[in-house]
Amino acid sequence: MEIRFFNTLTGTTEVFQPVHSDCVRMYSCGPTVYDFAHIGNFRSFLFADLIRRTLEFFGHQVHHVMNITDVGHMTDDASADGGGEDKMQAAARRMKEDKKSGRVPEGAVQNPDDPYQIAKYFTDAFLEDARTLGVRVAFEYPDNVLQATQHIDAMLEMIGQLIQRGHAYVGPDGVVYYSVESFPAYGRLSGNTLDRLMAGAGGRVSEQNQANKRHPADFMLWKPDSSHIMKWDSPWGAGYPGWHIECSCMARRRLGRDVIDIHTGGEDLIFPHHECEIAQTCGATGESTFARFWMHARFLLVEGEKMSKSRGNFYTVRDVLQGRVRDEKGQPTGVSVHPAVLRLELLKSHYRGNMNFTHKGLIDSAGVVRRLTEFRSRLEAASGGHAEPVDLSHPVLNAFAAALADDLNIAGALGAILPWAATTPADPAVALGVLERVNQVLAVAPLAVSPGGAQASDEQAEIRQLCSDLDDARKRKDFAAADLIRGQIQKRGYDVKTSPTGTIAEKRLA
Q: Is residue 174 located within the same domain as residue 128?
């Protein structure tokens, strides 16, 4: 079956063919570990996971690499050079405040002035969140999740190559800059032109900086700065790398190719970050392209608005899972959300459209997850847990695959399986085989996560006791007490049902 993806580089939907038939090589921009990653970040990470799982579903071997930025990403990252301060420095200041207020676990960060401790704290948090949501590459740390600070040598080597090839120069201020005029294709990905960038430089690039550059759009590769929070020796003085150089180097080193198949990220990275990556990599390798396909997920809104801490609608993965999402009345629901529900919610909107994250959407996704997991339970019971191998000749699996092959049409893929999940298939073993193939991509029925260990067991025991108390109250015809107990169970996030054997409490997924 032919796979087609939209390519930001060409602005068209194209047939996907790997550069080398043995393996699809794919690189994704990961988090800057100065804070917890928010759900907008994770929309992009899960989008990359969906690409990988889809390609594997169709039989491709995929080598997927993701970076972790722990140096060089400045607070003002809208311009190619960046500006302000290193985000790790901003994180150190915030970490001190969080330690004072008790928001950081005791002993988690001994010294907030040590950027490596801060990076480790937020790297560990990111990996935990990513694994909880089933992001496959997160289980491959550190082999395929690479930290920028571990690859400074590769950055120094590439910068030297760029200077030697005439693509970079040392400015009067000692900073090493990339010369955008040396790369005629600069701007092709984003649609920018050098004339437009020149015209837009006023007010964005200081006169002092412009005086140090050959062109206002030239961007920093290395900055000598002995006072920077993180610094390394280099031929151009002790300092630190620019943000863009890390991805060029780590992708090339770990994937072992000058031209890779797919590069992913959020749409905010198209310019300047990805535009600069292309210029650097092609300048160093002499190739005409860096990645054959550039694929970008669009922004995430919350209840139709931009996510913002001041609006109270800024959510990390942990906020959502722990029930801090606000309902339609603006109040935290207090109901925990199953990771499979959040995974599906962040995946179910097509990646090339803005996603609107809502409380209602979570409830809808919870219904889908429950429908699929209950369908699996029925099939396992009917087949004795045996799943027959199936291929794309099965009509349901074929329709699911055709939707995915059409530029990851996830709505179409869900539309192919949800009506089927409401039926009673004639051959449950074959149906279970189909569902297992489907779940290789969706990873929601089930999404294996830790249920919370002893804490979860204690809660389940308490809920069982409340159900027993409710049954006793009914037997005594003490309906006021029964209603009170029912309310207590519901407040704990459970739906209460009556069965021939007594009261059943079913944990809500959202």
A: yes
Say how far apart CA 366 and CA 379 lie, in whole Å.
Answer: 20
Higher pLDDT, 313 or 199: 313
- The predicted model gives 313-340 an average pLDDT of 93
Tell me, yes or no, whether 352 and 426 share the same domain: yes
Mean pLDDT of 97-109: 87
Please state the φ and ψ torsions of residue 152, each to the nearest 5 degrees: -60, -35
Say whether both 56 and 186 belong to one domain: yes
Q: Which amino acid is at 499?
A: S
| Packing angle, helices 428-442 and 39-57, rounded to 10 | 130
What local confidence, expressed as pLDDT, does residue 450 receive?
Answer: 44
The strand pair at 300-302 and 305-306 is best described as antiparallel
How many domains are there within the chain? 3
The answer on 291 and 219 residing in a single domain is: yes
Q: Containing H/E element for 118?
A: helix 115-132
Q: For residue 453, what pLDDT band results from cuts at 50, 70 and 90?
A: very low
Task: Output the six-digit token pair for 350.
Answer: 């097509």
Residue 339 to residue 264: CA distance in whole angstroms:
23
pLDDT in the model for residue 183: 97
Instruction: Tell me the whole-structure pTM to 2 decimals.
Output: 0.90
Host domain of residue 494: 455-507
Runs of H (alpha helix) within 133-244: 152-164, 194-199, 207-212
Q: Which amino acid is at 486?
A: R
| CATH of residue 111 | 3.40.50.620
Helix, coil or strand: residue 387: coil
Answer yes or no: do 480 and 410 share one domain.
no
Question: 481 and 378 share a domain?
Answer: no
Dist. CA 43–CA 52, nearest whole Å: 14
pLDDT for 204 beyond 60: no
Query: Is the Cβ–Cβ distance between 281 and 37 less than 8 Å?
Result: no
